[in-house]
């Protein structure tokens, strides 16, 4: 029951991200605590989104909360670590049986305990209980203890039964001191510890270069995230501005449509009013001419000469006719020229829209996040063969298939396939095609 209580207390002080005991604990606004480094790395991955989430309760925060060290929790964790180390230092509390992958104690009988130390002089491994004489007895003071090694027998020379303490660079083998006077005499040899230090220095240099590459890639990734965010914002803002411009154009065309209709109606009223006034004048002249014609008919019926002559003297001359009006040669289709002008205006707008949209389309295609880059420069310490072992380039299509007419862009004529770009592991863009930039105008007859 006591052991279960210790495990429970230990879980309470574990970070839910790294699953280790809290280091420099900080508490976020929702109340959960994490290691300072763990929560910073976790939130750095979502920095470009601007929304930061708790890994446990998934509560989101915006903007990013300021992290402050929880001093009270830090003190409690330090006391817990000291208590755990004190309990672990007691041999009775630290005994455990050896598992399949553990080194076994060579002194234990029956079921063997897990070995914690191996002696390079005794060539044996000991558990926590049986290794105590090496710390307490003066006879074992000169023995060299190392961490328990399950493969301890592999560090012993099979020929001389001595510890392998020398490394032969000529044969690239581990040997003992007796081998130096035998088959490895005159070879380039060095102590294992010295060769280990040399190899560690080389590995340290490799790790430093690797860390430099990681930092460079992380910086590029961060810049790419920012570019994506700014690119999306610019695209949305441009789309909104384009909507406003096209809405204004549509309203302008609707206003011109209304003005043309009102102009036609006004011209219709003016022409009809003038024609009706002329028609009324002509009708009056017809009435007067008919009246004069009736008087002549009546005069022709008089048989008395004297009365006839007297009536002729009182006869008035027929009214003079006004100038004849100039009528349209095609009264039924007098607005045909207007229709022709409207059709020409339509064709002109269509031609301008084709050229303008083609220009807009090309400008949109030229806006990119990833531009052309120079080929990667081979860094120092990397051979040509290593550079050739990079993974194959992953092809990513960024172009449009223009082998057939595009319903979203009817101004592109059929042509070669659009370019297919590919990204190499270092981010350089490769082109495997050419871009077709020709715009075809659809011919139409121009009215004169």
From TrEMBL:
Q: Where is the B box-type domain?
A: 152-192
Which intervals hold domain RING-type?
Answer: 15-58
Which Gene3D superfamilies does UniProt cross-reference here? 4.10.830.40, Classic Zinc Finger, Zinc/RING finger domain, C3HC4 (zinc finger)
Region of interest (Disordered), residue spans: 372-396, 427-448
Q: Where is the composition biased (Basic residues)?
A: 434-448
Question: Which Pfam families does the entry mention?
Answer: TRIM_CC, zf-B_box, zf-C3HC4_4
Keywords attached to this entry: Coiled coil, Metal-binding, Zinc, Zinc-finger
CDD domains, per the entry: Bbox2_TRIM16-like
Q: Name one GO cellular component term.
A: cytoplasm
- Bias (Polar residues) ranges: 376-388
Report if keyword Metal-binding is assigned. Answer: yes
Which one of the record's GO molecular function terms can you name?
zinc ion binding
Coiled-coil residues are 265-295
Q: Which InterPro entries match?
A: E3_ubiq-ligase_TRIM/RNF, TRIM8/14/16/25/29/45/65_CC, Znf_B-box, Znf_RING, Znf_RING/FYVE/PHD, Znf_RING_CS
Q: Which PANTHER family match?
A: B-BOX DOMAIN CONTAINING, E3 UBIQUITIN_ISG15 LIGASE TRIM25-RELATED
* Protein name (record): FinTRIM family, member 67
- Organism ancestry: Eukaryota, Metazoa, Chordata, Craniata, Vertebrata
**Gene encoding the protein:** FTR67
